[in-house]
């Protein structure tokens, strides 16, 4: 079956220009939303159908809708950027489409053809490009997601799904003026285990991490870092970001993709850009005790987290129980700064795009 064409439904009352201008002047991350959304439905035996660009609004769900009981739900996160020539562009949207389907397979959900995923994202950006925020680090954050929409009570994969894309004007993820974030090491909670859903971008992974994140904030930290489920020794990732470690010889280490952490698209881009810069990157296990020892000896000079929302964020302080240690000078290091600048310049169209990551709209 060929991909369905998108019907475009007129918005009866879009947000007034002055109200929109005020909303995007300094938007908190994930709090402001645009006028439209994209919706596509799936029915077993029929495939994908009813593709629409429509006014954003509440969803009406039966109390027995499968997702509410069995949590068959996945999502993606990506950004649309304004380039210097005024056009809009997406960064590595093909990778998001591929990861979306990898998550769908793990959650026993219908796969969405990658070209349809990309078309839906482009439609969402085109519909609300005038919502782009005029702030430092501004972008349109796109949230494609899919859930089991079949109405039934029974433990089995659903036969009906709804895919949607909503759009949010955003600025910088972290509003703090601190030079780096601080982390709390969770030793009581585990984000994912071998054979689980750690590599899938599903809501349950994030729900499981929230109690540890709340603990971190209560103790005065910005984020939580999780250790492996088996030995509680090896660093895995934050609640929503991958980790990198920079050493005094200029080399980098990042935890390997063993099925318990999300294969970050920003993570993959950082590895490629580091190689481009002639740096050595090792994907290998790194222990929490070694992290502290290397930081205290000076062998470790920088640590940073990365992800679509926060891009690249330096880590300055880590606390484990009653003990804390500082990374380098406690701020952004030279390698972190260089890699972030190279990544952002490509995303914004200010530098050459040798890997074909940018898709203009």
Automatic annotation (TrEMBL):
Residues the record lists as N6-(pyridoxal phosphate)lysine modifications: 201
PROSITE patterns: AA_TRANSFER_CLASS_4 (PS00770)
Keywords assigned: Amino-acid biosynthesis, Aminotransferase, Branched-chain amino acid biosynthesis, Pyridoxal phosphate, Transferase
Superkingdom, taxonomy of origin: Bacteria
Cofactor(s) listed: pyridoxal 5'-phosphate
Gene3D superfamilies, A to Z: 3.30.470.10, D-amino Acid Aminotransferase, subunit A, domain 2 (3.20.10.10)
Pathway(s) served: Amino-acid biosynthesis; L-valine biosynthesis; L-valine from pyruvate: step 4/4; Amino-acid biosynthesis; L-isoleucine biosynthesis; L-isoleucine from 2-oxobutanoate: step 4/4; Amino-acid biosynthesis; L-leucine biosynthesis; L-leucine from 3-methyl-2-oxobutanoate: step 4/4
InterPro entries the UniProt entry points to: Aminotrans_IV, Aminotrans_IV_CS, Aminotransferase-like, B_amino_transII, BCAT-like_C, BCAT-like_N, BCAT_family
Any Pfam family hit: Aminotran_4
Enzyme class: transferase
Gene Ontology biological-process entries: isoleucine biosynthetic process; L-leucine biosynthetic process; L-valine biosynthetic process
Catalyses which reaction(s): L-isoleucine + 2-oxoglutarate = (S)-3-methyl-2-oxopentanoate + L-glutamate; L-leucine + 2-oxoglutarate = 4-methyl-2-oxopentanoate + L-glutamate; L-valine + 2-oxoglutarate = 3-methyl-2-oxobutanoate + L-glutamate
EC code: 2.6.1.42
Keyword Transferase attributed: yes
Signal sequence, start to end: none
Single GO term (MF): L-isoleucine-2-oxoglutarate transaminase activity
PANTHER family: BRANCHED-CHAIN-AMINO-ACID AMINOTRANSFERASE (PTHR11825:SF44), SUBGROUP IIII AMINOTRANSFERASE (PTHR11825)
Family designation: Belongs to the class-IV pyridoxal-phosphate-dependent aminotransferase family.
Biological function: Acts on leucine, isoleucine and valine.
UniProt-recorded name of the protein: Branched-chain-amino-acid aminotransferase
UniProt source species: Sphingopyxis alaskensis (strain DSM 13593 / LMG 18877 / RB2256) (Sphingomonas alaskensis)
């Amino acid at each position: 079956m060929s991909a369905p064409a998108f019907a475009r439904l007129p918005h009866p009352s879009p947000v007034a220009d002055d109200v929109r201008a005020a909303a995007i002047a300094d938007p908190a991350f994930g709090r402001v939303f645009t006028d439209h959304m994209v919706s596509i439905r799936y029915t077993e035996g029929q495939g994908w159908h009813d593709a629409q660009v429509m006014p954003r609004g509440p969803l009406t769900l039966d109390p027995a809708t499968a997702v509410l009981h069995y949590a068959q739900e996945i999502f993606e996160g990506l950004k649309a950027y304004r380039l210097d020539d005024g056009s809009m562009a997406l960064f590595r949207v093909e990778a998001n489409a591929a990861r979306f389907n990898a998550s769908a397979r793990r959650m026993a959900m219908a796969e969405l053809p990658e070209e349809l995923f990309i078309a839906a994202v482009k439609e969402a950006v085109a519909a609300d490009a005038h919502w782009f925020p005029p702030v430092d680090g501004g972008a349109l954050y796109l949230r494609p997601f899919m859930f089991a929409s079949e109405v039934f009570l029974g433990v089995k994969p659903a036969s009906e799904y709804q895919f949607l894309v909503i759009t949010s004007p955003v600025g910088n993820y972290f509003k703090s003026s601190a030079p780096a974030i601080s982390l709390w090491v969770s030793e009581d909670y585990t984000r994912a285990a071998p054979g689980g859903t750690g590599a899938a971008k599903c809501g349950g992974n994030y729900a499981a991490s929230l109690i540890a994140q709340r603990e971190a904030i209560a103790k005065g930290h910005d984020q939580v870092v999780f250790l492996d489920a088996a030995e509680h020794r090896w660093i895995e990732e934050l609640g929503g970001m991958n980790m990198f470690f920079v050493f005094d010889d200029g080399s980098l280490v990042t935890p390997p993709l063993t099925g318990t952490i999300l294969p970050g698209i920003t993570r993959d881009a950082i590895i490629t850009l580091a190689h481009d810069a002639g740096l050595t990157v090792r994907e290998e296990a790194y222990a929490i005790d070694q992290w502290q020892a290397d930081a205290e000896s000076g062998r470790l000079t920088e640590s940073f987290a990365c992800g679509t929302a926060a891009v690249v964020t330096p880590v300055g302080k880590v606390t484990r129980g009653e003990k804390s240690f500082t990374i380098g000078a406690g701020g952004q290091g030279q390698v972190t700064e260089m890699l972030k600048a190279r990544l952002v310049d490509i995303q914004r169209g200010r530098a050459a795009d040798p890997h074909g990551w940018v898709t203009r709209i």
